[in-house]
Amino acid sequence: MAPIKTSEYEKVPVVETGENETNKIEEPTYGYGVRHVQSLIVFTSLLIGFIVRSQLGVTIVAMTYYIPINTDITSVDNTTLQTIPVNISNTDIGTVIENKPVNVTLDLDSINIAGNIYTDLLNNTIDEDIILELENSTSDENGIYKKYVWSKPIQETILTSFFLGYCLAQFFMSMIAQRWGGKIPLQIGLFVNGFASFVTPWCAFWGGWKAVCICRILQGISQGGFFPSIQTLLAQWIPPRERGRLSSFVYTGTTLGTVLGFQIGGILSASPWGWPSVFWGTGILCLLGFAMLTIFGAATPHEHKTISEEERVYITHTMNKYSKRKLMVPLKALKSRHTWAVFATHVGSSTAFVFIFMQFPSYIHYSLGVNVKDSGLFSSLPYVVSFFAAIFYGIASDFLTNRSIISVINARRFFNSLAQIGTAISLMALSYTKNVTLAIGLQVIVQATHVATHVGWMVNYIDLTANYSGALLAVGNTMMNMFSLILPVMVSNIVIDVANQSQWRVMFYLIAGFVLITNAIFVLFISTERQPWDDEDYQKTDSEYKEKKLEVFSTDIKKTEG
Fold first, then answer.
1. Judging by DSSP bridges, how do beta strands 84-86 and 102-104 pair with one another?
2. pTM reported for the whole predicted model
């Protein structure tokens, strides 16, 4: 019998890696424990962060006026100055409250100012001093409870300023999580968001919309560490067999936080305490979350003081070696097509989410004619459904993969495609209906399918790398936020008339096409195997393991020949 060449040995499937090797190991079991408590703490932190992030989409409606440009208010005489109805049109400075005229007290000079800004509004060349003068003449007597005269571009700037700060801090905060664990960036985020929320009403009164932007940028910077930190914490606390359901549960904090943010924004804005109470309430929530995380949270199972040894072993026995030695993502990670596949779908799905998150309340308010109170309810309904859908996807993913009904890689492909294709088709259909019930139904489908990404690209970062999952997610988030900063520019230039459904349709189609293309890239180039660049000792260990197996195989061949 001719000797077998080394190259032929390498073709023999004697080494099983990734999920196949893991499934052959008889794993210990452990029921409810500290890892579930930690998951709940991380979920609550994320939920509070998204309450702060989302409430402004509704609150800004309550804190701004919509100035009349379709009525000749310059003809109003002095006898009606105390009850001048501020009507609405599609070119706005501020926003109408519940589709009703807002009665304000103006003097004659202010009326002339308001009447003369019509042409400037159409040309988008309003003098900022005129706006400020009109603001001061209408509601300064209300102190921090005053309403502001802010144009649609100004409102978009305020809403987008959060993502500017969010984008700037992503990678830096991920390095903190990589070096010192995921707990510290979360603590920073909750504390800073609480402080900035609490002072926002005074900042708006003293510094106008620019001061509000500064507060939102500060909140965005501090929340830049949320997802990298959470990804790092999940990589340390959740064993592979529970990765789908517990990760999915934690990330439902984004959907439930959005629901509560919309509702809190609407309810508190309409309360006797006015719109400032929204910022005060969310500020207190952040500080309570900070205290909870500080007292009960831990970065890793090894750092937790009360976890049992049995649960610690159960969590860590199948996990790869975790190292805090490296602070930077290895260059090979950024050269890997598998990494860029995750980046692509990350950018596509998250850009769609941000678009829906920021623009859907305006769409149903202006294009479908839903008043702001109902807008908060309707905007929240899809997120309620998606909360339960996300939990279902997590359980289903673990069930299918743990029982080898479907491979991990195909599970990632399936659930990610469900999310992306469902989002794209629903968005395109949504742009053709004027029926409010049907529109909300389609929006429910958008959100209910979108959250399947929790067991798609989001958990795929952890599949590829435990050491750098947070840092790589930060890179993906940074790229995504660059696209998010472009979104308001696109909306402002495409949706000139916010009541024109055809203009909204163009935006919906652009987003849908982008989502489908990025998902195709993910499906083609995805991997669920741990990558060699994840740890400097991995390649060496893996090579030695293969050599040992090769020796055993060679010995068996010689015995057969003998």
1. antiparallel
2. 0.67
CA distances 47 to 245, 260, 288, Å, are: 17, 9, 13
Q: What share of the chain is helix, strand, coil (3-state, %, to 5)?
A: 75, 0, 25
Domain ranges of the chain: 33-63+150-319+335-530, 73-145, 537-562
At the fourth CATH level, the homologous superfamily of domain 33-63+150-319+335-530 is MFS general substrate transporter like domains (1.20.1250.20)
Helix axes 276-296, 34-54, angle to 10 degrees: 160
Sequence-separated (6 or more) residues with CB below 8 Å from residue 487? 160, 351, 354, 355, 358, 359
How many CB atoms lie under 10 A from the CB of residue 407? 15
pLDDT at 142: 66
The candidate with the shortest Cα–Cα distance to 153, out of 120, 187, 115, 201, is 120
Burial class (CB in 10 A: 0-12, 13-18, 19+), 237: buried
pLDDT digits (tens, 9 = 90+) for 497-520: 878 888 899 999 999 999 999 999
Question: Taking residues 243-267, what's their average pLDDT?
Answer: 84
Identify the band that residue 348 occupies on the pLDDT scale cut at 50, 70 and 90: very high
DSSP 117: T
Residue 148 φ/ψ, nearest 5 degrees? -115, 155
Q: Which two tokens stand for residue 43?
A: 């979920």
Distance CA 422, CA 470 (A): 27
Residue 243: pLDDT over 60: yes
In a 13 Å sphere around the CA of 417, the CA atoms on its Cβ side amount to 12
